[in-house]
Design goal:
The protein has helices at 9-22, 26-33, 54-58, 108-119, 144-177, 184-193, 207-215, 219-225, 229-237, 250-269, 278-284, 291-294, 298-321, 326-353, 373-384, 402-413, 415-422, 426-450, 458-463, 470-475, 478-498, 506-524, and strands at 49-50, 62-63, 68-69, 76-81, 97-103, 129-131. It has a 4-stranded mixed beta sheet with strand order 1-5-4-6. It is globular, with a radius of gyration of 30 Å. It has 3 domains: 9-134, no CATH class; 144-237, no CATH class; 250-330 and 405-529, no CATH class. α1 (9-22) crosses α2 (26-33), α5 packs across α8 (219-225) and α13 (298-321) packs parallel to α16. It is mainly alpha-helical. InterPro entries: Acyl_transf_3_dom, Nose-resist-to-fluoxetine_N, O2_lipid_transport_reg.
């Protein structure tokens, strides 16, 4: 086709590109060199990401000889093309994904025509093409959600900045009256809870002047100082050993070990879609040692057990301070919602509105970010109500939030067992928690019988897009996950009844350790044949 036959700017630029490549112009060879090459190495290992070189397509070529950048008549535009399946931004097609570099003047329709001629397929549509020119950072006007999120983050950042300054001023004022540096802790105690800690202010001769200095600080300044970055970091990194009998420090070890296990499993699972040797991963899944990774889902149950245990302990402790009442139950529900929701929604806002601007690349979701269009349309409100694992599951925002949904739902129904326990009907409390355990076990068994061919691993889910999903049917379903939480409640009940002084005899400890030693490895390797 000659230049006279080219009807669009895209076609004219593409003809210039082809002619320059035939003339072996370096800039044109650079653009074609950035294309993904058909049949690269590792295809039989599952390498279906023929992405080419993203940066080579978009950036000017640097010439070390004369220390200049190579000029070219137009800028390149990088696109990913998936001819076999319709793809959505942020996901990888089950077929091949090919990276191509075309003139930036080409729109999606022009690229579709090019792809149809290239692959000899008429069923390729604009849904099969994703281009760098469509990235959020390339758009002239910022969406309203982005502006709102930036305003909220700016306000919070301003509060932290002002709070830090106010905090330092108040601390310096206190230190000027109390030269002994150890007295600064007195300011922290006062500003944190509004009272003077007698242990922090050692010398009584400073007491009156300390009170006078701190009374000059208005309640507004004390409130703003709560946003201080210095104070927050001090609270995070100050490790004080508590000698309180009510301390449950042993839980921290369980949290750390389980957290490492979760991170390890997610590091493998989330990268599974982007590896070029997925066949090797599938072969590893039949190795017993690999079950520590593929069955990392068991580590999440540890957090459910801890959550149930702490809920039982804290509920009973609060009841000992005040009588059970309707007001107490309202506070029980509202307190947890207020404690979790602001931070959760802030993270959700950032994930929906800002993640598209956080990076770039051939696979990076630079158009709509980490969240799907379904999340933006009708999945967000399920997060506010903590029902995202029940309603619009396929459009769930912030996929890992399924844990918060389950934990909140378990918190809602926990009083059905807690209230009988604290009013003296302990047998009913034990009975209700036992029913919860049986519901979890029965639900899993029933679902597996109804879907006999369903995979039993998230790793198998990642490579099998057909049929029922283990993730949606079992993994995030509250009726399948409640057993661990109920066991935590039972453990809390037993702890309350027996107290800190309970010691099991040697025989019981030996039998329990033996059963645990046998069942633990068996649980980890159960899915060898199903991975």
């Amino acid at each position: 086709m000659s230049n006279s036959n080219a009807t669009t700017q895209c076609e004219q630029d593409f003809l210039i590109l082809v002619e320059a490549a035939l003339s072996r112009d370096l800039w044109a060879l650079k653009l074609f060199d950035s294309w993904g090459k058909p049949l690269p190495s590792g295809v039989l290992k599952g390498n279906m990401l023929w992405t080419g070189n993203y940066d080579e397509c978009l950036d000017s070529l640097y010439q070390p000889a004369n220390k200049t950048f190579l000029s070219q008549p137009f800028v390149g535009q990088y696109c990913t093309l998936s001819p076999s399946d319709t793809i959505s931004e942020g996901t990888v097609s089950s077929g091949l994904t090919l990276g191509i570099c075309v003139p930036s003047s080409c729109d999606r329709q022009s690229i579709v025509r090019l792809a149809r001629n290239l692959f000899k397929k008429d069923n390729i549509t604009e849904n099969n093409v994703l281009c760098s020119n469509d990235a959020a950072s390339k758009q002239k006007n910022l969406p309203r959600g982005v502006v709102i999120t930036c305003v909220i983050l700016s306000i919070l950042g301003l509060l932290v900045f002002v709070g830090t300054i106010v905090d330092l001023i108040l601390a310096c004022r206190f230190e000027s009256i109390n030269p002994d540096s150890s007295h600064i802790n007195g300011y922290n105690a006062i500003s944190d809870i509004g009272l003077i800690n007698s242990k922090s202010i050692i010398s009584s001769r400073y007491l009156c002047s300390s009170i006078q200095a701190l009374l000059s600080a208005t309640p507004q300044s004390i409130f703003i100082a709560q946003f201080s970055a210095v104070r927050t970091l001090r609270r995070i990194f100050t490790m004080e050993k508590k000698n309180d009998d009510n301390s449950l420090a042993f839980i921290h070890g369980l949290r750390v070990l389980s957290l490492f296990w979760v991170i390890f499993g997610h590091s493998i699972l989330f990268n599974l879609f982007y590896t070029n040797n997925i066949i090797d991963v599938l072969s590893w899944s039949h190795n017993i040692a690999f079950q520590l990774i593929s069955n990392g889902v068991l580590s999440v149950d540890t957090f459910f057990v801890i959550s149930g245990y702490l809920t039982a302990i804290i509920f009973v402790r609060e009841i000992t301070k005040e009588k059970l009442s309707f007001r107490f139950l309202i506070r029980y529900y509202i307190h947890r919602y207020i404690r979790l929701t602001p931070t959760f929604l802030l993270v959700l806002l950032v994930s929906i509105n800002l993640t598209a601007y956080f990076g770039r690349g051939p696979i990076y979701p630079s158009i709509q970010g980490f969240e799907s269009e379904g999340c933006r349309q009708h999945g967000w409100w399920t997060a506010i109500l903590y029902v995202g694992n029940l309603v619009h599951v396929d459009d769930m925002c912030l996929g890992v939030s399924w844990y918060l949904y389950n934990d909140m739902q378990f918190h809602w129904i926990a009083p059905l067992a807690l209230i009988p326990f604290v009013i003296g009907r302990k047998s009913i409390g034990y009975f209700v928690t036992t029913i919860y355990v049986l519901i979890g076990i029965g639900s899993i068994v029933g679902i597996l019988l109804y879907y006999p061919n369903m995979s039993l691993s998230l790793f198998a889910d990642a490579t099998n897009v057909n049929g029922p999903s283990f993730f949606s049917k079992i993994y995030i379903a509250p009726w399948c996950r409640i057993s661990a939480y109920a066991i935590g409640l039972l453990t809390g009940f037993i702890f309350i009844n027996t107290g800190h002084s309970y010691r099991s005899n040697t025989l019981i400890s030996s039998i329990s350790s033996t059963i645990n030693g046998i069942s633990e490895p068996n649980d980890l390797v159960t899915a060898v044949n199903n991975s």
